[in-house]
């Protein structure tokens, strides 16, 4: 390898893995598929190869190296597809080479996914003052895996691809937790966890130099990653000045995140991808923009929070959860976009069937019976979706129920709603709260007929 700094980092990684730390604490690499985590894993991989080939047996590959990739379930589809291919290659190459590299993919809990919170529970989409997404979609899933390793091994070491050169804020944050003369620093939130940042001193140009000059040790084509960054780079992003191929004329340090991200004012990377030929993504960008633009529209929000507290501002505007009709409207729009996108990109799934099922469960628990996920899905796709193990009444049962209710649809709807509530509890594998839900529905019914 021609880069002296890269060689120095590899030597340091070998020393840290085989000599400086003789424990079997697992290494956990946070892998996003981006440039920094790719370089980090590349250098670690080369270090493991050299340990296997050159070092005496007692020091050989005794600790596992987990490559942990978190899927928020709303990743930019282009990045999600790329990462899926890369992880498959990593798994195959590690197995063929006999390296202790293990790929682990984490995802949010179903009840904490983006669409469950927005379309199911009616959470307003995130912004800078209510940024609920980072914790639910990113931190908790990976923290759960980390804690599992700590429970098993006692301690763990997290390898990060963070660099001083990223920003002044990043450098201050990194140096704040460092211990002078030590490679490892304590994790700022998780006990018995240490942080190791081998590439912290690399400059942006050096990162790209390694990507473009060092073949991927797991056999992937790094030019694909370079091209993704190039296509996603807006004019105001800094580009590397050192490249190894004259064809690599432009690239940036674009930030790839969730395609639904409303924390930033404008999704520059998705806009740039569209400008560079990914026209099928335009409906996604338009939908993302609509989520942002419609966030604080008074008519979309309820006057009370989930806990019953008042959610009306001094100027009389509502700031509670989204109304049920608005949730149903945005679900319909999302499914229409999915249908359209899948004509060109059949593998792209913007929302999963499990999420659709869970949204229906939440609507039923919140006494939302005017809208039905299955009906909306059928309206868009012209076919049925199984909205669970939620059992609906068949035609014979409905006819009997109508006869028993003597044609009174209010009583018929009440019983139908109560049966749905019971079935949703069964789906959630717990009947906790069923009694209160039934009481609330009956109380609501009484108020309706008395009113």
Poorly predicted runs are: 235-254, 426-430
**DSSP strand (E) fraction?**
5-15%
Radius of gyration: 26 Å
| Assembly context of the chains | single chain
* Total helical elements: 16
Q: Could you give the order of the helices and strands?
A: HEHEHEHHEHEEHHHHHHHHHH
The helicity comes to: 40-55%
Termini, distance in Å?
80 Å
Helical/strand content category? mainly alpha
Strand order of the largest sheet: 3-2-1-4-6-5
Specify the CATH architecture of the largest domain.
3-Layer(aba) Sandwich
Summed over residues and divided by their number, the pLDDT gives a mean of: 85
Notes on the protein architecture:
The chain is mostly helical and 451 residues long. The chain has 3 domains: 4-220, 3-Layer(aba) Sandwich (Rossmann fold); 296-381, no CATH class; 395-445, no CATH class. Helices cover 49% and strands 6% of the residues. The protein has a 6-stranded mixed beta sheet, sandwiched between helices. α3 (77-97) links the parallel β2 (65-70) and β3 (101-106). α12 (353-365) crosses α15 (409-427).
Which keywords apply here?
six-stranded mixed β-sheet; 6 strands; Rossmann fold; elongated; 451 residues
In a few lines, what is going on in this structure?
With 451 residues, the chain is mostly helical.
Helix-strand layout with pairing:
Elements (H helix, E strand, L loop, with lengths): L3 H17 L6 E4 L4 H20 L10 E6 L6 H21 L3 E6 L7 H7 L12 H21 L2 E4 L8 H10 L6 E3 L6 E4 L7 H10 L8 H10 L36 H8 L6 H12 L30 H18 L11 H13 L7 H9 L13 H10 L4 H19 L6 H17 L1
Parallel strand pairs: 1-2, 1-4, 2-3, 4-6
Antiparallel strand pairs: 5-6
Helix pairs in contact: 1-2, 2-7, 4-12, 11-13, 12-15, 15-16
């Amino acid at each position: 390898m021609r880069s002296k700094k890269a060689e120095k980092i590899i030597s340091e990684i070998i020393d840290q893995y085989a000599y400086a730390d003789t424990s079997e604490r697992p290494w956990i690499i946070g892998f996003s598929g981006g440039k920094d985590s790719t370089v980090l894993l590349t250098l670690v991989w080369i270090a493991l190869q050299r340990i296997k080939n050159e070092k005496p047996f007692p020091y050989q590959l005794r600790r596992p190296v987990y490559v942990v990739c978190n899927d928020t379930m709303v990743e930019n589809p282009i990045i999600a597809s790329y990462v899926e291919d890369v992880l498959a290659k990593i798994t195959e190459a590690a197995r063929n080479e006999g390296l202790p590299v293990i790929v682990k993919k984490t995802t949010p809990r179903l009840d904490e996914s983006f669409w469950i919170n927005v379309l199911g529970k009616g959470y307003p989409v995130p912004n800078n003052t209510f940024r609920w997404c980072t914790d639910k979609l990113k931190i908790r899933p990976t923290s759960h895996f980390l804690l599992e390793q700590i429970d098993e091994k006692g301690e763990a070491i997290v390898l990060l691809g963070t660099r001083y050169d990223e920003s002044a804020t990043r450098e201050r944050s990194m140096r704040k937790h460092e211990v002078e003369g030590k490679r490892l620093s304590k994790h700022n939130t998780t006990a018995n966890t240490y942080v190791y940042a081998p590439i912290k001193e690399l400059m942006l140009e050096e990162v790209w130099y390694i990507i473009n000059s060092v073949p991927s040790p797991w056999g992937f084509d790094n030019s694909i990653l370079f091209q993704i960054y190039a296509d996603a780079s807006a004019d105001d992003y800094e580009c590397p000045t050192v490249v190894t191929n004259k064809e690599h004329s432009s690239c940036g340090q674009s930030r790839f995140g969730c395609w639904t991200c409303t924390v930033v004012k404008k999704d520059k990377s998705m806009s740039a991808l569209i400008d560079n030929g990914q026209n099928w993504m335009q409906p996604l960008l338009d939908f993302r923009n609509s989520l942002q633009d419609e966030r604080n529209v008074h008519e979309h929000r309820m006057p009370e929070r989930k806990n019953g507290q008042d959610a009306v501002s001094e100027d009389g505007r509502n700031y509670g959860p989204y109304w049920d009709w608005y949730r149903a409207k945005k679900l319909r729009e999302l499914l229409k976009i999915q249908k359209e996108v899948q004509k060109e990109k059949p593998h792209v799934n913007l929302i999963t069937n499990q999420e659709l099922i869970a949204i229906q469960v939440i609507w039923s628990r919140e006494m939302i019976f005017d809208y039905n996920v299955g009906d909306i899905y059928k309206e868009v796709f012209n076919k049925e979706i199984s909205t669970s193990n939620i059992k609906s009444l068949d035609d014979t049962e409905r006819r009997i129920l109508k006869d028993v209710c003597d044609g009174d649809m209010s009583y018929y709807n009440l019983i139908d709603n109560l049966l749905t509530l019971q079935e949703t509890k069964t789906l959630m594998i717990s009947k906790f709260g069923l009694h209160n839900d039934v009481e609330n529905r009956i109380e609501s019914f009484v108020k309706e007929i008395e009113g």
